[in-house]
What we know:
The chain folds into three domains: 3-100, Helix Hairpins (Orthogonal Bundle); 113-167, SH3 type barrels, CATH 2.30.30; 173-253, Alpha-Beta Plaits (2-Layer Sandwich). The termini are far apart. It is an alpha+beta fold. Helices cover 54% and strands 19% of the residues.
Amino acid sequence: xxxxxxxxxxxxxxxxxxxxxxxxxxxxxxxxxxxxxxxxxxxxxxxxxxxxxxxxxxxxxxxxxxxxxxxxxxxxxxxxxxxxxxxxxxxxxxxxxxxxxxxxxxxxxxxxxxxxxxxxxxxxxxxxxxxxxxxxxxxxxxxxxxxxxxxxxxxxxxxxxxxxxxxxxxxxxxxxxxxxxxxxxxxxxxxxxxxxxxxxxxxxxxxxxxxxxxxxxxxxxxxxxxxxxxxxxxxxxxxxxxxxxxxxxxxxxxxxxxxxxxxxxxxxx
Length: 269
């Protein structure tokens, strides 16, 4: 074997590999820059301005993932790997991964359904399967809630679409329902008037629909009155707590007894 020929061949091979690696690195760097630019361009487009924020976030996640797949396939092609072999490997791996990641695919399908059906939007206060919080983000696979005590809950989108969703922010107004218990023998009309007066006196309570107060249940040890008032969504908790405190003070001022559980025992001779 001619040593010079061998070395020349080795050098040519090394140069070829080095050039391919250099080209792949350049494509990777430029591709990432282009992807970021494309995503920013979509965000600033008129289409994005007119589209719901929740839908846009899901779409951008899909676009971002799709562009990176194209970039990776391009780099593999530059490195000289036969595309037929790559496609065969991807197809085989896809079947195996699909079986192993059934949950992830379910979450992906859930993300698509959220984008289509839009049961909630970014910023809505919702209850999903017993988890309550403000929708912080909707991704391809997960929905993120921020709770009232500043905890972050990450829920798989497959679970989201399989659970009952309560959206407290979909309407502009919301009803506050409060129950007050008083002792038997208390003047019913007096309690109703007191509850209505407290409701009408609060500046955040809406006049239409009008506040409602009635005796709704005769409990074992108490008469239960229900007070219902309508408020704007943002004022719900303020009105809820204000009315509880105000009506408690009124009960004390008017000597209205708030009963405790009682049990009458009769002893037979």
